[in-house]
Amino acid sequence: MIPVILSGGSGSRLWPLSRKQYPKQFLALTGEQTLFQQTLLRLNFDGMQQAVLVANQDHRFIVQEQLDAVGIQAQAMLLEPFGRNTAPAVAIAAMQLLAEGRDELMLVLPADHVLRDQRAFQQALALATIAAEKGEMVLFGVPAERPETGYGYIRSKADVRLPDGISRVAEFVEKPNEDLARQYVESGDYFWNSGMFLFRASRFLEELKHHDVDIYDTCLLAVERSKRDGIAVSIDSATFACCPDNSIDYAVMEKTERACVVPLSAGWNDVGSWSSIWEVHDKDQDGNVTKGDVVVQDSHNCLVHGNGKLVSVIGLDDVVVVETKDAMMIAHKDRVQDVKKLVNRLDADGRSETQNHCAVYRPWGSYDSVDMGGRFQVKHITVKPGAQLSLQMHHHRAEHWIVVSGTAQVTCDDKVFLLTENQSTYIPIASVHRLANPGKIPLEIIEVQSGSYLGEDDIERLDDVYGRAPQSATVHSIAR
Question: 2-269 architecture in CATH?
Answer without folding.
Answer: Alpha-Beta Complex (3.90)
